[in-house]
Structures are given as structure tokens and as C-alpha cells.
Design a protein that fits this description.
Elements (H helix, E strand, L loop, with lengths): L15 H12 L1 H13 L5 H13 L5 H37 L5 H22 L5 H4 L1 H6 L4 H26 L6 H38 L2
Helix pairs in contact: 1-2, 1-3, 2-3, 2-4, 3-8, 4-8, 5-8
């Protein structure tokens, strides 16, 4: 079996691409699944490198496209399930206790969040699997809220399959230019992160203003 890293144009053998390529080279498609499972548990490992690289390996005949999609999706589900059970073991009681210690928040905020997740949780899990950054984190509240495990697994598998297929097939079609996929996904990730930071800043500002208004009203 040819070593995948020999055909990579710019990624050093010791980088993340080299590590993922070593797994694929040693284990085949299950190695790609293992890399994706690790990426779900440790989001700093970028799927925008691992998945296109797997697609490139499929284009080189190292693995089949079907095996690449099957094992990377299975890896996504396994990693997400671990996070689900972490959330389930943490539980609502501990979540409420931790929430009560945080500044600028109220118990009613968490209750509204729980109500929102109860109503829209299926959409959040399905679509969240296709959003950088949140694709891993969304599994934790699903576990905390004890979403039925079969529902969680089906939604996670579907969302992961769509996300993985886009990146794997991009790497397959782009060939030696597979690493350009990361540039576009990186822009999307930065955009999502910027929106989250902006939302948090707005939330804190609103909270501080509401507290200041409440204190002003209580002052005689």
C-alpha cells in the first residue's frame, strides 16, 4: 500500500495530515474513522484536514469512497456518543448548580434554554453536525437533556454523513489540491465564531444594563 503522505504537496509528515495519513495507511478506512472520532472529542483537530485527506486517499485507491464515508460517519457517531454520555452523566442538577454560580445569568435563562432545546433539539442536533465548532459541542446538551438515544444516533448519523460527504468528496475531486478545502471551511468557522462572540457580548451588555436599571429603580 502506497503511503499517502508521499503524494501530499505541502503538509509535513509530522503535521495533522501526516498523522491522519499514517492512520489511513496503517489501518485503511477504519483509521480515518478513528481520526474523526478523535476530532469529535478534541475539536482542535480539524475535520477540514482529516476528511478531505481521506477523500484524496480514496481518489488514490488507498480506500474506497464507500468505506471512507462509512467509517468517517461511524467515527463521528462514536465520538458524539461519548460526548452525549458525558452530558448525561453531568446531568441537569449539576448543570443548574453550576449555572447558579455564574455571573450575569438567571435560573430562568437556563429554563428557557431547556425549553428551546426540548422544542427544537432535533433540528439543533441534525443541523449542528454540519456547523463548524458546534458539531461536537451540540452532543453535550443533548445528553444533559436526555434526548432519546435512538433519536440522537439517527440525527447524528444523518448530519455527520452529509458533512463528511461534502468534505470527503471535495478531497476526492480536488486530488492533490485537497488541502484548499480547509481554507473555505476555515472562513466559515471564523464566521461562526465571530457570531458567537458577538452574541455573547450583546448578552453581557444587555444583562449589565438591566441590572443597572434595576438598581437605579431601587434607589430612593
Amino acid at each position: 500500500m502506497d503511503h499517502v503522505t508521499l503524494a501530499l504537496p505541502r503538509e509535513p509528515a509530522g503535521g495533522i495530515a501526516g498523522w491522519a495519513a499514517d492512520l489511513v495507511d496503517a489501518m485503511g478506512a477504519p483509521g480515518a474513522g478513528l481520526a474523526v472520532a478523535a476530532e469529535n472529542l478534541f475539536p482542535p483537530l480539524p475535520s477540514e484536514i482529516i476528511l478531505p485527506l481521506t477523500g484524496f486517499a480514496a481518489g488514490q485507491g488507498v480506500v474506497t469512497v464507500f468505506a471512507a464515508l462509512f467509517w468517517t460517519t461511524l467515527g463521528s457517531v462514536v465520538g458524539a456518543t461519548v460526548l452525549y454520555w458525558i452530558g448525561a452523566l453531568f446531568g441537569r442538577a449539576r448543570m443548574h448548580a453550576l449555572w447558579a454560580r455564574l455571573p450575569l445569568v438567571k435560573a430562568s435563562d437556563l429554563e428557557r434554554t431547556e425549553a428551546w432545546f426540548a422544542k427544537h433539539g432535533t433540528k439543533a442536533v441534525l443541523l449542528g453536525r454540519m456547523v463548524p465548532i458546534f458539531r461536537s459541542l451540540i452532543s453535550v446538551p443533548a445528553g444533559v437533556e436526555r434526548m432519546p438515544l435512538p433519536t440522537f444516533l439517527v440525527l447524528t448519523a444523518l448530519g455527520s454523513l452529509l458533512w463528511n460527504a461534502v468534505l470527503v468528496m471535495s478531497g476526492y475531486w480536488l486530488g492533490e489540491q485537497w488541502d484548499t478545502v480547509g481554507d473555505y471551511v476555515g472562513v466559515l468557522s471564523n464566521g461562526v465564531l465571530a457570531l458567537v462572540v458577538a452574541a455573547l457580548v450583546c448578552y453581557v451588555v444587555v444583562r449589565l444594563r438591566s441590572r443597572g436599571t434595576a438598581r437605579h429603580r431601587r434607589t430612593p
